[in-house]
């Protein structure tokens, strides 16, 4: 049985990823931080549709200390793949940004994923093939004003994945980043309708991405045949900011 853990499973992109992977035969750990009910509903739905697979909700705050992270990883069953689809942002000028918010952005988007990767490695390399996929952003390649810290964390993920992929390639563990452009999720719903209209005009394909536009590429990277692609950042942006 192939099993993946999807961090941020209850988010807009995370839900699409879970649905795509469940439909492709994956058993799943569905990670959540606060939305336990949504995670439970997803588990119930997938269990009815795919009774031969396992679906387990699991809670973790990405602000947890090192001991808590170790305890979390030690509680897991064997896994073949990890998808980091969690993420937070804060739209503001750096000079106005609360210092605690800066710490939170860096910890949730970059530090904790790196720590979890370190802890999960021993589980992953026991398999014939294993995969790690991080959700980055176009802003990791083209920094965004009002999101300087967010942009730096996403750029850091790309450089980390590129470096770490070289460490574990011989263990048949591939490490890649999917970097979406503007996606129709709650994160972008924070922007005004006027701003979003301007963004759509800048996107050559003329629309925001749907969750399924992103989940397709995650599912593709998790396929056993995708074993020669590692250390890459793949921009799924509709032609925007590339």
UniProtKB/TrEMBL annotation:
- The membrane spanning regions, by residue number, are none
Gene Ontology terms describing biological process: monocarboxylic acid metabolic process
User: Matching Gene3D superfamilies, A to Z?
Assistant: NAD(P)-binding Rossmann-like Domain (3.40.50.720)
Question: What InterPro entries has UniProt attached to this entry?
Answer: NAD(P)-bd_dom_sf, Sc_DH/Rdtase_CS, SDR, SDR_fam
NCBIfam families tied to this protein: EF_P_mod_YmfI
Q: Which family does it belong to?
A: Belongs to the short-chain dehydrogenases/reductases (SDR) family.
PANTHER family documented for this protein: 3-OXOACYL-(ACYL-CARRIER-PROTEIN) REDUCTASE, 3-OXOACYL-[ACYL-CARRIER-PROTEIN] REDUCTASE FABG
Protein name listed in UniProt: 3-oxoacyl-ACP reductase
């Amino acid at each position: 049985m192939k099993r993946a853990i999807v961090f941020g499973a209850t988010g807009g992109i995370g839900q699409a990823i879970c649905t795509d992977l469940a439909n492709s035969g994956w058993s799943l750990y569905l990670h959540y931080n606060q939305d336990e009910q949504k995670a439970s509903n997803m588990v119930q739905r997938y269990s009815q549709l795919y009774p031969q697979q396992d679906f387990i909700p699991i809670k973790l705050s990405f602000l947890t200390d090192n001991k808590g992270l170790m305890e979390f990883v030690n509680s897991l069953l064997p896994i073949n793949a990890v998808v980091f689809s969690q993420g937070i942002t804060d739209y503001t000028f750096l000079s106005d940004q609360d210092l605690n918010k800066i710490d939170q952005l860096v910890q949730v988007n970059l530090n904790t994923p790196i720590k979890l990767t370190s802890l999960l490695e021993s589980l992953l390399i026991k398999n014939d093939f294993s995969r790690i996929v991080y959700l980055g952003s176009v802003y990791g390649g083209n920094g965004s004003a009002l999101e300087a810290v967010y942009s730096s964390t996403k750029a850091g993920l790309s450089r980390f994945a590129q470096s770490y992929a070289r460490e574990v390639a011989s263990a048949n563990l591939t490490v890649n980043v999917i970097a979406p452009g503007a996606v129709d999720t709650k994160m972008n719903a924070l922007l005004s309708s006027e701003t979003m209209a301007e963004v759509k005009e800048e996107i050559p394909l003329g629309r925001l991405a749907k969750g399924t536009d992103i989940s397709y590429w995650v599912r593709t990277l998790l396929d056993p045949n995708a074993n020669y692609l590692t250390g890459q950042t793949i921009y799924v942006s509709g032609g925007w900011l590339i």
